[in-house]
Amino acid sequence: MPRNQRDENLFQNTTMTFGEHLEELRDCLFKALLGLAVGFVLGLAVGAPVVELIQKPLTDALASYYEKQSVEKIEAKLAQDKAGGKSLPGDPDQIAEMIARDHLLADEVYVDPVELLECLKSNKEYSDRLKDIRLERRDKKLGKDDLVRLFLWRSIAEDARVRTKSLNAHEAFMIYIKASLLVGAMLASPWIFYQIWSFVAAGLYGHEKQFVHVFLPFSLALFFAGAALAFFFVFKPVLNFLFSFNSWLGIDPDPRISEWLGFVLMLPLGFGISFQLPLVMLFLERIGIFDVEAYLSRWRIAILVIFTLAMFLTPADPTSMLLMAIPLTVLYFGGILLCRYLPRSRSPYDENEQ
Description:
Number of helices: 14
Strand order of the largest sheet: 1-2
Strand content: under 5%
Number of strands: 2
Oligomer: single chain
Largest sheet: 2 strands, antiparallel
Order of helices and strands: HHHHEHHEHHHHHHHH
Number of domains: 2
Radius of gyration: 32 Å
């Protein structure tokens, strides 16, 4: 039998027209959106705790920023007093340790010692001293040098600066809706990924469609691994790096919750999508577009592309770029190992070549 006739018999029930592809795309998108809507309704029940959860990396970074700022200010003040021969209101090392341990912030205040002694006049010793000091200060004008400097301590959790803010009446409601939508997308992601791979499978030949059933669970696992890496391990160093510029420039951060939520959505999404790299490599290898030798011979170009994409998929800082590019580089070589060692199914091409 001629080769072209064998090919026609093999593929006659697997090809689709352009219109059929559009029809399949429409059905898959509709089903994916329907699954997202169901997930969104379920997400409304847990929207409030999710808003609190997604604020935690930001509030922790803000607390760390102001704790460090408080320690630096106190150390500078105490060093200045020590150099001037003044008495110190506390030991710098103990104060720094207390701030780190109990998460406290210091408010520097000045009080009039006479007024302070007035409050303590019920004690006879202080009462006698108060009379002497009043006589000494009768004709003297009160100045800053006559005041006593104290540190008043308060919990950093009570500081308004570590709380995210909304600047209009409807912003909090929209944050709740977006958080519920985020939960819905996570709950519906298995169904959405299934629809995506179903659309891909519709355009494949019969012997290629089996890859979809293998790729779907791995695709979900890689997506959630990338998103979890961004949320639990990337946010903290990225925020610390960005806030270091606030400290350097003397500008205190005052983030809005809506801007932070956009950051929360985009960074894990970028990590989750980029972590599909090994599966994309395996898929392209299985359908014959690339082979292992091509991946190995072009690894330098691949790493350059990875670092370039990481630069665009992350904020404008080197920390998040490296935290994305390095795992993707590892995943690239992991994709090569998948292509080399994952058992390959027998192709119907080979059967017809007999």
